[in-house]
Structures are given as C-alpha cells and as structure tokens.
C-alpha cells in the first residue's frame, strides 16, 4: 500500500491487486462475525453489513473492469 495524498480529513492510498483481494477476504470474514440483534436500535450491525456488501460489490466491478 502506498500513500498518494494525506490531508487533515482524508487519506488516499494505492493498493496492489493482492492487497485489495486480501482486504476483501478480511471484510468477508469479519462480516461473518457481525450479528444482527433484533434489539439493535441503531442498526449498527445492519449498517456494517450494508457497507461490507457495497465494498464487495465494488470489488466485483473492479474485477470486471480489469477483465475487459
């Protein structure tokens, strides 16, 4: 991973394909450990799962773009 830009509220990094796939695997593994409780008033578990699903979807688009 290489830092491209660093500002007070944002950091831009560049990942290799291997690093990106490793991150995706960690997201999927972590997602398995997030339980959604019926009493979760703030929907934290649902939000974490939604973000993880979006991340995995983004990786799918990335893979398709590289294949073409």
Give the topology:
Elements: E1 2-6, E2 11-14, H1 17-32, H2 44-67
Outline type:
extended
Please report the distance between the alpha carbons of the first and last residues. 24 Å
Strand line-up in the sheet with most strands: 1-2
Determine the strand fraction and express it as a percent band.
5-15%
How many DSSP-defined strands? 2
Question: What's a quick, concise take on this entry?
Answer:
α1 runs antiparallel to α2.
Written overview of the protein:
There is one protein chain. This protein is 59% helix and 13% strand. The protein has 68 residues and is an alpha+beta fold. It has a two-stranded antiparallel sheet. A hairpin with a 4-residue loop joins strand 1 and strand 2 (11-14). It is extended, with a radius of gyration of 15 Å.
Highlighted features:
68 residues; two-stranded antiparallel sheet; extended
